[in-house]
Amino acid sequence: MKRKLTREWFQKEYWEKQRSTTSIAKELSVYPADVGRFMESLGVPRRTKQEAVARHVLLTTFALETINGQLLGDGHLEYNGYRAASLTFSSKYEDYLAWLFSIFASFGIEQSGRISRYAQKTRNATLFCARTRYYREFIDLRRLWYPEGRKVVPKTLLLTPRLTLHWYLGDGCLNHPKKGRTCIRMHTNALPVEDVEFLASQLTHLGFYARRQPFDNTIYINADSTKAFLQWIGPCPAEIQHRYGYKWDLQHSMHQWLRERR
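Above: the chain's sequence. Below: its structure in token form.
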């Protein structure tokens, strides 16, 4: 250990920065067990199991907008029983998840393990899944989104361009009817009816013509509001343009776009 390692240094690195003994050992070019023994000799306590799996993160406005937008779609909050929770996401595109977790990394939210790959036998397709580490600050989000164990939309949720962009990436699509003009549909089928009506009313207050479709519990944004809606949420992020650019393409249907990519 080349640097002068003091109790204060370990307190800062291990407790304040929440670094692991493995991370510290890598920096010092020693084994994690050596770090543990040295901390013990200095009187630096180790984290309990509960403290080890639960980290802290500062959730900024941008972070919350991103997380809430993803939770409106397929995102899930998993409670671990130790007063902490993690975010779980799935997608048919591995590079989309890599992009999403690069955004989380900028907020200080770390990915846990690698992106996993699963075969969906019923759909004959591949699904990719990934999750974050457990954070104590996610518990409040878990209580808001799953007050009784089932996902609901918090009535304190306010739609913003960033939040809605992530919602659209997960659950939105352009609808190109054979007859008529292009419109937008948000696939909110799994949400309670009152929550879908709540989201539709927010979109209406924002100036878009939106309504819940009773036959399938989705949200319809009509053709007159489609272009304005896409302008409001902003363009498709450049990093995933090759995956989801068709959701902004008012001139082509998704099937046409897929054919052109082959």
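The mean pLDDT is 89.
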